[in-house]
Protein 1
Amino acid sequence: MAADPEPMVHGTLMAGFAQACINLKIVAGRQVGELLADLDVSEWYPLRRWVQLEQMIGVTYQNVDPIRLKLGIEMMSLWYHRGPGRDVIRRGVDFLHFQTGSTGIVSVIRGPQDLVGSFDLREFDAAAGRAVIHSTTPFHRKIESGVLIGGLLAPGDLDYVNVHNDGDPDLLVVEFH
Amino acid sequence: MARLEDVLDEGDAAAVHELSRAELERLLWKYRGLRKQVERDTAFWQATNDTLKTAYERLDEQERELAHAYQTIRQDLEIAQQVQHALLPKQPPDMLAQLDLAVYHKQLTEVGGDYYDFFRTREGHHAIGLFDISGHGVSAALIMAFLKAQFMQTMEQVARPKEIVEWVNQASLGFLREVRRYATVNFVVFGERSIRYVCGGGYGVLVRGGEIYTFSKGDPFIGIRRRPYTEFELSFYTGDLLALYTDGLVEAQNAAGESYSSRRLNALICAHAHEPVTEILRRCVDDYHGFRRSDADDITLILLRRREA
């Protein structure tokens, strides 16, 4: 089967992002309608539409990184508490294992490998409470950091979660306890 | 040993000593986790606040620009208002030798669409015109100036009201169509013992001895289409009263949604027709103000009575 010429993003991810924006009151009024217009959670959408959504936030905020982080957390909270998350993971660390071999990411983005990239669990040390994810996806790393924090915290069994970069922006170092 | 969740739920600080080392470690991570969460939330709210601050500053700036633009518009409107006042007639004394006159003219906005004027035909007869120009504002003032010029020019060419209005209509049709405006016309020429009038919209009544003669209307407004106008003649003797008014007066509504109506106004004028025109005018205006909830249009009411020669 021929690969899609352009990466496609699943409607659930788009809807999750849009809903997170609404919940956090990052957008309001007319923009809410624009965010959710024609959005079908069973459809796939061109990556550029996701980029448009992201840009909508980018142009509004001067310091957008804390907003992106919070959006990622909220998206995964919605995924777990109001979406299928509970059926996929039981504990916080399950969310990390779910990323093994880019399992998680392929459920929300598809297309040419060089454009879709990967989101892969590289290291996992339960005793030290440390894991490393390597990401080459087209998504913003701050949103991905938020996704990891939100996914790990959502089941409620972890007391501490933090994600930071060790110099390499594509390496997401996760601390959890 | 106590459970961390129980200790935290009960809030008993002394119970912390009953926690195991593992539970104490968990407490430390919980504390650090909360700190991280506060850190993230603070950064989020700080970013939101900064954006709000910028938005407010931008709003402030736009408000100042808006205020400046509003000021400019106000000044323009004031000038238009002055121009319009200058266009409205001063009471001509030679006309007052033959007629008692009372006028109530109120504009809904700074610049209105009601326009009245006194003229002298080329045969030397006095004439009065009352017009209601569609719309308000500067455009109405401009059209008023245009119509005034047209009438002044036409007066030098023809004398009969029918001819005058037809000339003006013909001369104005193209322009008024282009700017999508029109004007009702009520044009009356006073003869020795009669009046001759053309009525294309607006209202006119003549009161004599308790009887009311309503103007026949049915002719088009000025600026609608090219068509001959019809001229009517009514006797107008000493003591007879003539009232001309625009729709703003009779279409105004009370709180119940009822219109003031020409029937009510005509009956009031008729009932007090023997009184001085200024007194009749006062009664009409008071009655109108007592009736209507608010003005919805420009209002003009003109009363004229034939004096003894």
Note: The domain at 8-176 of chain A is CATH 3.90.1520.10 (H-NOX domain).
Protein 2
Amino acid sequence: MKYPEFQALGAEVLSMSVDSVFVHKMWNDHELSKMVGHDVPFMMCSDQDGGIGKAYGIYDEDSGVETRGRFIIDPDGNIQGFEVLTPPVGRNVKESIRQLQAFQLVRASAGTEATPSGWRPGKQTLKPGPDLVGNVWKVWKVEEAFTE
Amino acid sequence: MPEEFKPGCKRPEIKKMSVATEETTAQPAAKEAMKSMVKVGKPAPDFTAAAFYEGKFVNVTLSEFRGKWVLLCFYPGDFTFV
């Protein structure tokens, strides 16, 4: 549902589980497409032996499946952030979009800007430097972390 | 970009890439480290995997997306509930 937003941000989405591509097709055709009204727009990858999940540290040997690991990878191929959940709790896609926007802002600023807690596009950023040391309280209020 | 393949009667072969080569060349201590979590700010392990995409079966390699941001989402299994 949110794929166009990722596209607009210049991001590609890949999903990954130990299921085969045949099962991915069946899941798309028989359940997911009915949930969202169209085919899954991103690549549904298969990690049959869990080798990729092991490399990312999120493969669970006991159950033979991958835990809910989500990785944000920058244009240089470096991991900027990850979140790993046990199976029963789903992700918050909006939070992934927010983090992606924050990482993109920081990258675009070449590290001259940082995003404080609760930052969203349009909200205040911080410009780290000698003058800001010990003075964040003067330019940024804690309440701002909790406003929409 | 992802290349289509024609599936046979079995699951597609696993494409071993840097994920596997690193494992074989790693020292025992490093091997143990491989099982632990990746680190932020460090390179994402590259891989090639079979994928279902736009009605076709394709091979996708992570490093093909260099220059773009990538959201990589693992999940426990198809047809589970969350």
Note: The two ends of chain A are 22 Å apart (CA to CA).
